[in-house]
Amino acid sequence: MLKTGSVLNDTYEILGVIGQGGGGIVYQAMHLRLRKPVAVKKVADSAAGRLNLRGEADILKNLHHTYLPRIYDFLEVAGEVFTVMDYIPGHSLEYYLKRGTRLTMRQVTVWSRQLCEAVAYLHSRRPPILHRDIKPSNIMITPEGNVCLIDFNISVGAEAASPVRAVSAGYSSPEQCAVPGEGGRLPEEKKGELSDIYSIGATMYHMVTGMRPDRDFRKIVPIEAYKGRVPDSLVRIISKAMAFRPKDRYQSVLQLLGDLTRIGEHDSRRKRIRTIRTVCISLCIVLAAAAAALLTLNWYRTRMERTERYAARADQLYLYAKAEEYDQVIRFGMEILDEASLEGGWKGAMDIKSDIEYMIADGYLGKEEYDQAILYYEQALQDAGDSADPEIYRDYAVALARKGRVTEAEAVLDSYGDMNDADVLYVRAELFMADGDYEQAAEYADRAAEGADEELLDKRAGLLRASALIRLSGEEGQDSAAVLNEAETSLEALIRQGSENYRVYGLMAVILCEEQELLPLESRNYQAVKTYYDQALACYEKNGGEDESSLMAALETIMDQLYDGGWLSENQ
Question: I need a surface site. Which of 125, 242, 302, 414 has the fewest CB within 10 A?
Answer without folding.
Answer: 414
